[in-house]
Amino acid sequence: MAPTRQPSAPGRPRLTGTTAWTAGILGLGALGAAALLYVFDPASSRFYPPCPLHALTGLDCPTCGGLRAAHLLLHGQIRAAFQLNPLLFVALPVAGILALRPALARARGFPWAALAGLIAYFLWRNFG
Questions:
Q1: pLDDT tens for residues 86-116?
Q2: What are the CA-CA distances from residue 71 to residues 20, 24, 37, 61 (Å)?
Q3: Which of 33, 39, 77, 113 would bridge 72 by S-S if both were Cys, CB 3.0 to 4.6 A apart?
Q4: The predicted structure's pLDDT at residue 38
Q5: Which residue range forms the structural domain that includes residue 59?
Q6: Residue 77 φ then ψ, to 5°
Q7: Tally of structural domains, the chain
Q8: Within 13 Å, how many C-alpha atoms sit on residue 91's CB side?
Q9: What's the pLDDT tens digit per position in 21-35?
Q10: Nearest to 51 by CA among 36, 40, 41, 66
């Protein structure tokens, strides 16, 4: 007797084999990147690339300090991480929500709102 398939809940997409493999590979990649970031401090390791905008202009881009902040966050130094890049504390939960609900990224106005937020943060950070 063949096993019966349970229908997926209404409104929830069914995870196909390809999607599950992709999610698994991306998850392992993120875990590997977090382990690398945990072990090697971006403030003292040379293999992390410098910010091209900061190198050319001296201005901090919205993600400047993000790797150092993530390293400190992985080590439980929340206050120091926040001081380096407060945007990380907004970006991580938003990225998690978008990973679970990718349709939200395609919602009308979301890309423009995200771009406006990044520009506002850039201006506040450098000129505010």
A1: 999 999 999 989 888 888 888 889 999 999 9
A2: 28, 23, 6, 18
A3: 77
A4: 96
A5: 29-127
A6: -95, 75
A7: 1
A8: 16
A9: 888 898 899 999 999
A10: 66
